[in-house]
């Protein structure tokens, strides 16, 4: 009996320590899982031995889920709405409904602003916390259509409202809506592209929503691309509330900001090309950036490199990717990395068996996106026949790889593109066809989640 109390005390201390260890292990595991994971893969893990050859690298960033026990990052949202004469009727009414839908999803800590533009630009809701909801709704409901389309000025004024809180820790996003051609102020795609490139330096992304078939999809895509935003083609105004809700769902689910990727190649591996994304090749380093990652999203970059002549049985390092980003929940800089190696063999079966279908699929989808852009370019030059041939060549390639690897996604993409090619062959490149091709190409290259 004299040993009972010390024994109980020892056991209590033991189990207390064990529970603490389990909890801390769980916390550490949760912390690890909450980071962005970087994976570097090649299109084949085993390469044919012999001469030097090109290899496709896929650098994947797997974003974690947004933590449920921590308040989400605050949002600084600016809507820039076209109220020119062409927006009259259902489009302007649905645009107002979409704006109110976006407002209803914000919290009291978020900032909201609305700029409208026609011949002139007007800030009707200056940047403010989303508190006076009924007053803001009454202001939005008074929007009416009329006048021309000062699109550049509208985006610039929208950015000015965002900048009122640029130094604060917000997710900064502009959503631009337009149904017509910019005809007041700068109006070329390059003009808006330069504006987008300037805004991304301030961590402001612009998402563009084109309504109907009369807006300039090249301009809208350039602005979105240069600022790392999304782009949408909405044939009917009735879809606007749904699109705005989907876009805001992304904005409210950001788990990483200011994402930088540096891919370092060994001296014997040479960079050939960045596929589908903008970036810089500086000798043995490739630099890429993305403004934001959303929860549970996969973003990737494809890079083509050339590896040296190798003998069977050898193994080499292909690339290392280092990722840095800001955690919007802790405001701390986090890092992640991944490395890829490849082996060489004289056995064709080993080479074929090592194929990474995920890398092959995304590579082919990106080649298809580039083919769509080339078809638009050919059609714009009056070369409809050549444009159709380009699309059909892409269809054939998608079918070939889809059948070879029994990949339903490639086959589905081939079927959809074949319908588009046949429509263009019969009717020419209509405004709708051109917008579908441009938007689809952009969304594929940027891994925009389909809505």
Quick one: how many beta strands? 16
The best one-word shape is: globular
Could you say how many structural domains there are in total? 3
Strand content: 25-35%
The residue-averaged pLDDT reads 90
Helical percentage: 40-55%
Look up the CATH topology of the largest domain.
Rossmann fold
- Strand order of the biggest β-sheet: 2-16-15-10-13-12
Spatial gap, N to C terminus:
71 Å
Number of helices: 12
Query: Going by CATH, what is the homologous superfamily of the largest domain?
Result: von Willebrand factor, type A domain
Characterize the main sheet.
6 strands, mixed
CATH architecture of the largest domain: 3-Layer(aba) Sandwich
In CATH, what is the class of the largest domain?
Alpha Beta
> Helices and strands: which structural class?
alpha/beta
Low-confidence stretches: 1-7, 9-33
Q: Radius of gyration, rounded?
A: 26 Å
> What is the H/E order?
HEEEEHEEHHEHEHEHEEEEEEEHHHHH
- Oligomeric composition of the shown chains: single chain
């Amino acid at each position: 009996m004299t040993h009972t109390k010390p024994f109980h005390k020892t056991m209590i201390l033991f189990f207390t320590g064990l529970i603490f260890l389990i909890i801390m292990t769980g916390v550490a595991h949760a912390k690890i899982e909450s980071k962005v994971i970087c994976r570097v893969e090649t299109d084949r893990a085993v390469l044919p031995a012999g001469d030097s050859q090109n290899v496709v690298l896929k650098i994947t960033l797997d974003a974690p889920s947004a933590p449920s026990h921590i308040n989400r990052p605050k949002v600084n949202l600016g809507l820039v709405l076209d109220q020119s004469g062409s927006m009259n009727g259902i489009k302007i009414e649905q645009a107002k409904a979409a704006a109110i839908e976006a407002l209803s999803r914000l919290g009291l800590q978020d900032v909201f602003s609305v700029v409208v533009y026609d011949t002139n630009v007007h800030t009707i809701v200056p940047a403010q916390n989303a508190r006076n909801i009924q007053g803001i709704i009454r202001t939005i409901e008074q929007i009416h259509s009329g006048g021309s389309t000062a699109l550049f000025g509208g985006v610039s004024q929208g950015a000015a409202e965002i900048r009122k809180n640029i130094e604060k820790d917000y997710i900064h996003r502009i959503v631009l809506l337009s149904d017509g051609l910019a005809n007041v102020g700068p109006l070329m795609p390059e003009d808006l592209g330069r504006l987008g490139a300037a805004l991304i330096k301030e961590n402001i992304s612009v998402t563009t929503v084109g309504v109907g078939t009369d807006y300039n999809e090249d301009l809208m895509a350039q602005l979105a691309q240069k600022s790392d935003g999304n782009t949408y083609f909405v044939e009917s105004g009735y879809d606007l509330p749904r699109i705005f809700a989907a876009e805001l769902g992304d904005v409210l689910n950001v788990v990483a900001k200011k994402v930088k990727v540096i891919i370092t190649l060994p001296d014997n591996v040479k960079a050939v090309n960045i596929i589908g994304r903008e970036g810089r090749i500086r000798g043995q380093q490739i630099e890429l950036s993305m403004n934001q990652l959303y929860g549970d999203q996969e973003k990737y970059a494809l890079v083509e490199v050339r590896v040296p002549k190798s003998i069977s049985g050898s193994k080499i390092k292909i690339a290392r990717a280092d990722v840095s980003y800001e955690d919007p929940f802790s405001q701390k800089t986090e890092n992640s990395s991944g490395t890829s190696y490849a082996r060489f063999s004289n056995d064709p079966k080993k080479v074929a068996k090592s194929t990474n279908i995920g890398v092959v699929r995304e590579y082919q989808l990106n080649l298809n996106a580039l083919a769509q852009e080339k078809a638009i370019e050919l059609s714009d030059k009056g070369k409809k026949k050549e444009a159709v041939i380009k699309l059909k060549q892409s269809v054939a390639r998608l079918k070939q790889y889809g059948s070879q690897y029994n990949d339903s996604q490639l086959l589905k993409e081939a079927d959809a593109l074949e319908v588009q090619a046949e429509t263009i062959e019969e009717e020419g490149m209509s405004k709708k066809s051109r917008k579908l091709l441009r938007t689809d190409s952009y969304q594929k290259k940027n891994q925009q989640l389909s809505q």
